[in-house]
TrEMBL record:
The lineage of its organism: unclassified sequences, metagenomes, ecological metagenomes. InterPro entries: FAD/NAD-bd_sf, FAD/NAD-binding_dom. SUPFAM superfamilies: Nucleotide-binding domain. Residues 2-140 form the FAD/NAD(P)-binding domain. This is FAD/NAD(P)-binding domain-containing protein. GO terms for molecular function: oxidoreductase activity. It holds the Pfam family Pyr_redox_2.
Length: 262
């Protein structure tokens, strides 16, 4: 959208192809609504359209509908911005059990309107903004959202109240843990002012934070029942490279209904 905006201002005839039903890509489908109201995205898209750009939603590039096909339609230059829509796997025992989901998939499904039941107890593994988004979304139902809904409604002109409320009430777990390999100071989510504020809000909402722990194994039968962690004594070596070290004698086990990989 940013590229389309700037090119349209420069006078180019711009067409944006969006694979999903609505414009915005990962802004719309990867970020919780309570953090980025959909009305903001809709207004930005409307501004870009008024500048002369065209949006084609539900149109994905495929083996058949490819760059050759686009050139035949008269397009001369291409800017590829597909977004990071795939999460990472965790290479530990038990990572293939039922109840283990990627945070990106979890947020994409919620933001497309699907109900995702994680159970009452959730463990989120990761220390970045995606981990916090997943954790805060999972626990939203267990605090009073009205103050935030009112602030969101005031901040977004003509944004329906239900749009703001859906993000707050979409799903809920009674116990949500975020496990970070890094210490509190090293967590990616704590390196910016906004990240520190979101950490504070997550703790206020009931999310339990466990820094300096690394996952050793996901426990259970066919379905996840818990996760075993080992204490991380150092994440980066003396040269600043990622090279975690662990204290194998110091372990922790959390019982859980779901594991979210972030």
């Amino acid at each position: 959208m940013g590229c389309a905006h700037d090119l349209a201002i420069m006078g180019y005839d711009v067409t944006v192809f969006e694979a999903l039903p609505d414009v915005g890509g990962m802004l719309r489908y990867g970020i919780p609504e309570y953090r980025l109201p959909r009305g903001v995205i809709d207004r930005e898209a409307a501004i870009i359209e008024r500048l002369g750009a065209t949006f084609k939603t539900g149109t994905a590039l495929t083996a058949e509908y490819n760059f050759r096909a686009l050139r035949e339609e008269g397009f001369e230059a291409f800017f590829i911005s597909i977004g990071a829509m795939r999460g990472r796997d965790l290479n530990i025992p038990g990572s293939d059990k039922d109840g283990v989901v990627k945070a990106v998939d979890y947020l994409l499904n919620l933001n497309r309107g699907y109900q995702v039941n994680l159970g009452d107890r959730v463990v989120v593994i990761g220390g970045g903004s995606v981990a916090l988004d997943a954790a805060r979304t999972a626990v939203r139902e267990f605090y009073n959202p009205m103050e935030e809904i009112e602030m969101t409604a005031e901040a977004v002109v003509a944004q329906p109240a239900m749009d703001a409320a859906r993000g707050a009430l979409r799903s809920g777990a009674s116990e949500v843990h975020v496990i970070s390999l890094e210490s509190l100071e090293e967590m990616p989510a704590s390196r910016t002012i906004q990240g520190k504020e979101e950490l504070r809000e997550a703790l206020e909402e009931g999310v339990k934070l466990h820094p300096a722990w690394g996952p050793r194994a996901i426990l259970g039968g066919e379905r996840v029942e818990g996760v075993e962690f080992v204490n991380c004594t150092r994440v980066f070596d003396e040269n600043g490279r990622f090279n975690p070290e662990f204290d194998e004698s110091n372990t922790m086990t959390l019982e859980t209904d779901s594991v979210v990989l972030a």
